[in-house]
Amino acid sequence: MATSSVQPDLPLVRRLEAVGFRAWPAASVVYDGSWQVRLTGGHPSKRVNCVVPLDPSDHRDLDQRLQKAAKRFADYGRTLVLRETPLAPPVLIQHLERTGWEVFETADVMTVDLSRLELPDTLDYLPSHDIGRFADACLHVAEEDPALKPALAEILSAIKPTSGFFMKQDPSNGAVATVLCVQDNDLAGILSLAVAKSHRRERLGTDMLSSALRWARISGARTAWLQVEATNEAAIALYDRFGFTKAYSYRYWRKS
């Protein structure tokens, strides 16, 4: 990772990584030592198609293990992607740099203390439990291929913690905003927050996020977390307004 004057809280990183895995579960998860190998044949999301090293000291046999992972990804018709968090071995990252790998995306994990937030007394949007309808809404808002619905529904159905599916519907345009809130004990994850291009700058993102966070707090969560691409300035500005602060960053690597 890029050097920083503030070192990440590794126990917090481990906990947020664990709840993140449960909030967006991969279809296949195997371990090579402490490396988690996550694959989902029908859905392209990087979070469910990557290798995630989870112990800074686990850096034995790097070439062999990377080749083994690459073979497993190839069996799924995918190119090997490695997700580097603060738990990744520095020796492994140095090896990637030497052997022609490149970083192609950076994201931030952000958290906020829900007890400190001023949120509406009522929910503007109530959560649904209709997975099929929510999957349709997500794909419509993001303008993604409707053929991804079975794979997305499979991911959503596999989420074990309590989940709330929030949607805003427009009578003439269908779904125009979505957000998923996954409550895992005292932690609530915010995922799939999206607003249709035709309805941006209408405070929908603010209203949807407010409802999800209010629901999470009512349900017993004390801290909310989310993951956002480091280049998504509009989303980061929204989260800043709610008091979210960066806990740590992660990067995706692939062979160049």
TrEMBL record:
State one molecular function term (GO): acyltransferase activity, transferring groups other than amino-acyl groups
Please list the coiled coil stretches.
none
Which residue range or ranges hold the N-acetyltransferase domain? 109-256
InterPro entries to which the protein is assigned, alphabetical: Acyl_CoA_acyltransferase, GNAT_dom, MshD_Acetyltransferase, Rv0428c-like_C
Gene3D superfamilies tied to this protein = 3.40.630.30
Q: Does the keyword Transferase apply?
A: yes
**Matching Pfam families:** Rv0428c_C
Which keywords label this protein?
Transferase
Give the superkingdom in one word: Bacteria
Q: Which PANTHER family match?
A: L-AMINO ACID N-ACETYLTRANSFERASE
The name this protein carries in UniProt is: GNAT family N-acetyltransferase
Per the UniProt record, the lineage of the source organism begins with: Bacteria, Pseudomonadati, Pseudomonadota, Alphaproteobacteria, Hyphomicrobiales
